[in-house]
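Hi R.,

Here's the chain you asked about this morning:
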Amino acid sequence: MSLPWQPISLIGIAVAFYLGFKNNSSYERLWEARKIWGGIVNTSRSFTVMARDFIVNEEGKSDFSESELQKKRKTLVHRHVAWVHALSLELRKVKSWEHNSANDHAFRENFGTNYDEKKFEKLKAYLSEEDYAYMMSKGNRPSHLLSIQSREMMALRQEGSLEHFRHLEMQGLLTELYGLQGKSERIKNFPFPRQYATVNFFFTVLFVVLLPLGMLDVFAGREIDWLIWLSIPFSVMGSWVFWTMEMIGDYSENPFEGLYNDVPISSMATGIEIDIRQMLDESDLPEAMKPEGVFKMLL
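And the predicted structure, written out as tokens:
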């Protein structure tokens, strides 16, 4: 049953190039997603600092007490916290091209990364009843939370507690947040091209099937007869390397599907909340999410 090694090695070279392209492209999607959420972290801090320092009684145009001003600041910051959590929840919706096996669903259920409409109820703690009802009535909920922010800031400008140029600065941050959300949605809603993902899987399976037959050709006919048994461990090792490379690329191409190779947007959202609420000197903060499981995964 042995086959000449040369044609099998030719297939192996082609598969290796294909695997390299797929893994590089998958890593680029994963790393871009991480950079996007790094941008969300930085912009959230900037927005909070501006909300804290820009909303004041400006040049006699308004005459609010400090407690009233602090309430306005807190409303903006808490609504931003709701936006961060709402975006992380929306990105957990499982698409048809993402991993949907029973084990994958069990992992999501076990670690709380599954999408569930009921999880939006925790956002009630950050929003007024009116804002929460408005958000839940829309399709793209995070997007409409940002629209509420824009409307609220315009109201602050008109009443005189947010100066014109400061309003423009904060509006620019909202535009940046819209851009970061859109970039996240682009990665989430556009799959890795199937012609690369699927065809490479078939090529890898073909090579793994043929590899043991090529190993027989390499080790057969030696002066020491028992050397032919070395074809078994070398076939296993070679197949394992190619198969593992295929799986790494396969599970890295969708960085928001709620599995172990994801960008940890849930823990990042909680970290953002803790960070920006501390800027308002709040103390009733959630605990930072800890790594889960034996492999210490951040989710």
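Residues 5-278 form one domain.

Let me know if you need anything else.
M.
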